[in-house]
Amino acid sequence: MSYTYNGSQIQIAHPVHTISINKQRVIFADTQGQKCTQFETSSEARQFVKWLKVS
Prior knowledge:
Layout: E1 2-5, E2 8-11, E3 18-22, E4 25-30, E5 33-38, H1 42-54
Antiparallel strand pairs: 1-2, 3-4, 4-5
């Protein structure tokens, strides 16, 4: 599954094991390992975390 942000795709291999958020940075671990994504605003980061939890 993938999430599109600013024209680039963030690949997620479910299930997601952990999610950590710090302002605009989201770090999550899925079956492929740990990944870090930087967003422009904290609200965009929260929106991505909500999407991760629902997907």
